[in-house]
Amino acid sequence: MQGHGRCLKLFLAFALLLLQYAQGGEVDHSQRDTNVPRRCIEKERQALLAFKHGLVDEDNSLSSWGSEAQKQDCCRWIGVYCSYQTGHVIGLDLSFEVVFDNLQGTMISPKLFELQHLQHLDLTAINFNGSQFPNFIGSLTNLRYLDLSWTNFGGKFPSQVGNLTNLVYLDLSVNSFTNVENLNWLPPLLSLRYLDLSSVNLSNAFDWLEAVNKLPELTNLTLRYCDLPPPILSTLSYINFSQSLASADLSGNDLSTSSIFLWLSNYNASLVYLDLSANQLVGSIPDVLGNMSSLTHLDLQSNQFEGGVPHSFARLCSLQYLGLSSNNLSGQLSKFVQILLSTCAQNSLEMLDLGNNQLAGSLPDLTNLSSLESLTISYNQLSGGIPESIGLMSKLEYIDFRMNSLEGIPESIGLMSKLVYIDFSMNSLEGVISKTHFSKLSKLRYLGLSSNKLVLDIHADWIPPFQLGSIHLRSCKMGPDFPKWLQTQKEFSHLDISDAGISDSFPSWFWSLCRNVTFMNLTSNQIRGTFANLTLEFSDFPTLLLSSNKLEGPIPSFLSTTKHLDLSYNKLSGSISFLCSSAAINLGFLDLSNNNVSGQVPDCLTHLESLVMLDLSNNALSGKIPTTIGSMFRIETLKLRSNRFVGQLPSSLKNCTSLVVIDVGDNKLSGPIPEWLGVSLKKLVILMLSSNHFNGSLPSQLCHLTHIQILDFSMNIISGSIPKCLTNLTTLAQKGNPSLNISHSYIISNINWGDDYDDDATFMWKGGMQTYKSTLGLVKRIDMSSNKLTGDIPSEITHLVGLVSLNLSRNQLTGQITPEIGNLQSLDSLDLSQNHIDGRIPTSLARIDRLGFLDLSYNNLFGKIPVGTQLQGFDPSFYAGNLQLCGPPLKKMCVDEVEKGPSGQTDFINQGDKDELITLGFYISMGLGFAAGFWGVCGTLIFSRSWRYAYLKFLNGLNDWLFVRIALLKRQLKGA
Ligand SMILES: *[C@@H]1O[C@H](CO)[C@@H](O)[C@H](O)[C@H]1NC(C)=O
Ligand SMILES: *[C@@H]1O[C@H](CO)[C@@H](O)[C@H](O)[C@H]1NC(C)=O
Ligand SMILES: *[C@@H]1O[C@H](CO)[C@@H](O)[C@H](O)[C@H]1NC(C)=O
Questions:
Q1: Residues lining ligand 1, CB < 6 A?
Q2: 71-75, 244-248, 900-904, 942-946: segment of lowest average pLDDT
Q3: Which PANTHER family does the record match to this protein (predicted)?
Q4: Helix/strand/coil for 367
Q5: Ligand 2 in contact with 194 (CB < 6 A)?
Q6: Cα 407 from Cα 362, distance rounded (Å)
Q7: What is the pLDDT of residues 618-634, one digit of tens each?
Q8: How many C-beta neighbours within 10 Å does residue 923 have?
Q9: Residue 328: what are its φ and ψ, rounded to 5°?
Q10: How far apart are CA 934 and CA 506, in angstroms?
Q11: What is the dihedral of CA 511, 516, 518, 521, to 10 degrees?
């Protein structure tokens, strides 16, 4: 299968050659033959110079164009083609080696109009920055070939191209035109063979099919992501249509009607290439496709097809590519394959993509698909073993079986000498992988066996036959020694050997292999030892994950040349002066938590301008928080919990206006709670200042934190009253939360790519320290316990209906519990113990049916405990110390047993909202990590398209990438 893009370029070159014959002239080759006298028509030379004037040519690609004496002859200029006979410019092609954005257009000079003999115009990928498309193009009536794709022209769609009746080739794809009203300009182009209007918005062009049908010569039609309206049935039977349509690409249009197949069946004899992917087609895969006997490429991915392949496919004898991934296909895979095997396609099929469906059963013998090079059945429900016969499929280069429940790998895999890519990750594979499994895999570049139950049993002297570029062996046991065979792999950029049972130190050769890595994950092993005096420079600012090992000693400065560094849960010690290295300028994510680093944080942080996340929690750092922390202007998460920091929060922190999370709990910080927290840091979602020596009263500015979800001031010496302006905390005043987690993404400016991460937070929850990550977005809590707060609990607090936890215990609060307390319908935990609160327990409290924890002990409450679902269920100790409280669950009976709450006993049944999300969410998702997130979402995007597209054929990959982006953007805009 040829890459579409490459074909295009070839076609283009030929088209130029063809031009000379059409013209009866000859393309000027005198650039090589210097004896031929030059003819360049002055008016046209001036036009070309004017055209160049409208371009920004930073790389000087048009250096041969100029007015200097030796550049007089415009026929010698690069990209300019003249007729040998007449000397007129007949071709202008600036698509040569266009690298993105190296040629920009400010405007297209109207003088180009002078090139009246122009037959071929190609300005592909010159960025005209949304400028208006030139009107005069409609008068260059000799044009046969017009390619203005990816030129970012804007304004009204140039329907004057309809005047160019000689056009054979027209590509206006990927521009920024406004909506097109109709395509009635198209039918006059009677010679048109090739039409590409991809990403042009045709949602109002209801005549698109009618217009296309009137082009008798059309062979290639490409209308990707055009928002096509449904085809109008009456036009389907139009007589004058081309009989020769060979290629139709209508992908990404949300088409849902099957009448599109009715239309396509007009081209049964001629269609070779059909792409209907990323539409909304439903039902069974239509039988009529089986009549398209010349099809080599059939792409139906990302639709909603059900069932299996129709029997009529037996007639598709030339099919090379069949893409059916991301549909709702179901049934036994073996039945599915049986039909393919009974067809004559069994010898032609090279690529089969069935990923992301609901195919079940075991993997059948596929050896009869004798030409198969690429096989994708990821994200299905396959089980059982992989048949030994797979080793006979000698042409297979690519296998993707990720995310099934497959159980064993046969040794015969090792015979597949063409295999380049193999991904069996996230199955139930068990057993031992030995060197036999790899014996002939000399071409292997991608090895994916992550998240199975495999043991890699390979002798220390094994020399693998391959050089891997990407190694994914998470949870494959290969310890206790460090895998020595890695030493032979000199080209990998991705290495994941996390949770591999390695309890060894880094071998001396290891780090020098990692110079070119972009991603390395060695977490959750028992790797010990120090970095010693390593020096090394990474070439790519990699992601380095080394957490949960036993690394010791100081952190070497070369690690500052990463972009994402996680060293948490080790035994690293010494200072963190490596941060002072100027190389740390690209560091975006740094987690050093749970180590033993000590000393002061050096006051050298001025260059950490990329840092978005800094976690130094649970170390032995001391001294003041340095002032230069305020230069980290991109920082979103700052965690300094559980160290020995002293002094005040530096006021420079108010420059860090992107801050979302601050956790400085469990230190020895002092001074008042700064007012600027509420004034400057408007984006704060989590503010944790607990277990310090903060004093003074709560500044009312805190009420400006409209995004705040967790406010924790517990265990300080804060006095005064609770501000009444709490109602302004709008996020707390809303129930639920649109997002489960609190996630960030960052792009490192210098290297133009970044990462994502989800915040976690650790705090006291129902009597124990808990860490939340995947559901952190749902946690809404206020904790002001163990301070010296006085006065009433302001009744305004009952407006914070989103609160899940409220802890005001261990203060000196007085007054009564407000009767509206029952408004806090989301409350899961309420602790008001050890205050001086008096009065009765409001009956409305019994209406909070989510309440799972309640502590009212040691106050001055009296009267009967209201009767409700839970209130009687709590342990009596949570009511203790209120000498005049009575009724169940306390043993003390009330004097007047018939006493009733003012509103009777039944009103606790009334609850409006049945949203169970929070409580449920907490329990089911406490253990879920974030790793699955990235590969679950992005991994499918990257690899669910057949790998040969995404990986080998870069040009195509680029297109796909773009269209995926456009599709995502569209979806975002639609708000779906
Ligand atoms: C295109 O053709 C129409 C009618 O034939 C004419 O009126 C119009 O001026 C032409 N447009 C251009 C830009 O040449
Ligand atoms: C037109 O489609 C055919 C069939 O898929 C293909 O071989 C040819 O390269 C296409 N032409 C162009 C210019 O892309
Ligand atoms: C790293 O990349 C450079 C340049 O691409 C190459 O010459 C070198 O061999 C690579 N080194 C390693 C260890 O992969």
A1: 135, 138-139, 160, 163
A2: 942-946
A3: LRR RECEPTOR-LIKE KINASE (PTHR48063), LRR RECEPTOR-LIKE SERINE_THREONINE-PROTEIN KINASE FLS2 (PTHR48063:SF101)
A4: coil
A5: yes
A6: 10
A7: 999 999 999 999 999 99
A8: 8
A9: -115, 35
A10: 28
A11: -20
Question: Which one has a higher pLDDT value, 1 or 577?
Answer: 577
Query: Which range has the worst mean pLDDT, 32-36, 72-76, 155-159, 351-355?
Result: 32-36
Give the integer Cα–Cα distance in Å for 775 and 72: 70
- Of all residues in the chain, what percent carry a pLDDT higher than 70? 85
The residues, ordered by sequence, that sit 6+ positions from 320 with a Cβ below 8 Å of its Cβ are 1, 296, 297, 348, 349, 350, 351, 371
Q: What is the DSSP string of 212-278?
A: HHT-TT--EEE-TT--PPPPPGGGTT-TT--S---EEE-TTS----THHHHHHGGGTTT--EEE--S
Nearest to 924 by CA among 780, 772, 746: 772
Among residues 324, 224, 312, the alpha carbon closest in space to that of 268 is found at 312
Greater model confidence, 80 or 774: 80
More confident residue, 942 or 888: 888
Residues 332 and 884: their CA atoms lie apart, in Å, by: 70
Q: What percent of the chain has pLDDT over 90?
A: 53
From atom 4 of ligand 1, which residue's Cα is the shortest distance away? 163
Instruction: Select the highest-mean-pLDDT range: 92-106, 342-356, 651-665.
Output: 651-665
User: What is the atom index within ligand 3 of the atom nearest the CA of 492?
Assistant: 14
Vertex 235 angle, CA 230 and 241, to 5°:
115
Q: What is the residue whose two structure tokens read 């010898």? A: 347
- Probe residue for ligand 2, chosen from 220, 320, 959 as the CB with the greatest number of ligand atoms within 8 Å: 220
Question: For atom 12 of ligand 2, which residue has the closest CA?
Answer: 8
Token pair 């269209």: residue = 963
User: Under DSSP, is residue 56 helix (H, G, I), strand (E, B) or coil?
Assistant: strand
User: Which of 790-794, 842-846, 916-920 is modeled with the greatest confidence?
Assistant: 790-794
Give the Å distance between the CA of 508 and the centre of ligand 2.
53
Lowest mean pLDDT among 174-178, 793-797, 927-931: 927-931
Contact indicator for 893, 886 with CB cutoff of 8 Å? yes
**CA nearest to 145, candidates 95, 180, 77:** 95
Q: How far apart (Å, rounded) are the C-alpha atoms in residues 809 and 855? A: 9
What's the per-residue H, E or C state across 482-533? CCHHHHHCCCCCEEECCCCCCCCECCCCHHHHHHHCCEEECCCCCCEECCCC
Mutate to test the pocket of ligand 1, among 133, 157, 160 (most ligand atoms within 8 A of CB): 160
Q: According to the model, what pLDDT value does residue 762 have?
A: 82
d(CA 613, CA 610): 9
- Please choose, from the candidates 260, 255, 343, 246, the residue with its C-alpha nearest in 3D space to the C-alpha of residue 296: 246
Residue 446: phi and psi, rounded to 5, are: -125, 120
Q: What is the mean pLDDT of the chain?
A: 83
Q: In a mutational test of the pocket of ligand 2, which residue from 95, 145, 247 has the highest number of ligand atoms less than 8 Å from its CB? A: 247
**293 in Cβ contact with 270 (< 8 Å):** no
Secondary structure letter of residue 71 according to DSSP: G
pLDDT of residue 773: 81
Q: Tell me the CA distances in angstroms from 116 to 21, 89, 312, one per residue in order.
A: 18, 8, 52
Q: What is the pLDDT of residue 249?
A: 97
844 in helix, strand or coil?
helix
CA-angle at 844, arms to 838 and 846, nearest 5°: 100
User: What is the C-alpha to C-alpha distance for residues 604 and 121, in angstroms, rounded to an integer?
Assistant: 56
Stretch 42-49: mean pLDDT, rounded? 93
pLDDT at 129 over 60: yes
Q: Which two tokens stand for residue 512?
A: 């020098």
C-alpha to C-alpha distance for 579 and 749, rounded to whole angstroms: 19
Which residue's alpha carbon is at the smallest distance from atom 5 of ligand 3? 516
